[in-house]
Specification:
Layout (H helix, E strand, L loop, with lengths): L1 E5 L8 E5 L5 H15 L1 E6 L15 H23 L5 E12 L2 E13 L25 E7 L3 E2 L2 H10 L3 H9 L9 H6 L6 H12 L1 H4 L1 H4 L2
Parallel strand pairs: 2-4
Antiparallel strand pairs: 1-2, 1-3, 4-5, 5-6, 5-7
Helix pairs in contact: 1-6, 3-4
Length: 222
């Protein structure tokens, strides 16, 4: 999926192209919200072919594996896009995972963003940031942004299915709550909070945090 956004304040209008590999409408909407708030005005959304190449287990455990899955998603999307067309400004990978503490499971996710040091990518930098790219459009210099969502404790019934019956969380959720394809809907967080937080809400702050290197490029980018 490619999202085209326009920056209308403080800088001349800039097009920013964003690619996400193989994620659901909730994640698309969430990315729309995050970039909308940071880049001021979202104008157009275009569908492109999806990519799935994570290189981790179907149910990642722990920060290392989950972060690696997010990074692999972003990198796979970026490599595929660059081989077929012009490289996008940003590629985003999101990977959900679990943290095991004794017999408890905590749900969390990692976000990885690959981007350049180009004028397009830093179009939303803070007003007081003095970063200037060495070249006018230094799109060949790649940088990464990472962030982790908050975590929440899963109920014992879900923990039992995942730990003792080797079920993915999404399948365990479907069985416990008697629904279908929950991981492509409001997600476990939506059900547990009775809709107060859905999958889109859950990712918003983490996605914005993963964009910090391009909001404060003077502190992060070379």
């Amino acid at each position: 999926m490619s999202i085209l956004l326009y920056r209308t304040l403080f800088l001349p209008i800039t097009d920013v192209h964003i690619l996400l590999p193989s994620f659901t409408l909730f994640v698309y909407i969430n990315t729309h919200i995050s970039y909308h708030n940071i880049y001021i005005k979202c104008n157009n959304i275009n569908n492109i072919s999806t990519i799935l190449c994570v290189g981790v287990s179907d149910q990642p455990f722990g920060d290392v594996e989950t972060k690696e899955g997010a990074k692999n998603r972003a990198q796979a999307a970026y490599d595929a896009a660059c081989s077929e067309q012009e490289c996008p400004d940003f590629c985003i990978g999101l990977e959900g995972g679990l943290e095991k503490q004794n017999n408890e499971l905590w749900c969390m996710a990692w976000i990885a963003i690959i981007g350049s040091n180009s004028n397009s990518c830093i179009a939303a930098k803070a007003e007081d940031d003095k970063y200037i790219p060495k070249e006018r459009n230094n799109s060949s210099s790649i940088s990464w942004g990472y962030s982790k969502t908050s975590s929440f404790l899963l109920p014992p019934a879900l923990c039992d299915l995942v730990i003792n019956h080797n079920m993915e969380l999404g399948h365990a959720d479907d069985k416990i709550f008697q629904r279908v394809n929950s991981k492509h809907g409001q997600g476990t967080i939506g059900k547990l909070t009775d809709g107060e937080i859905d999958r889109s809400d859950y990712y918003v702050h983490a996605l914005k945090q993963a964009l910090i290197p391009w909001i404060r490029p003077e502190l992060y980018l070379k």
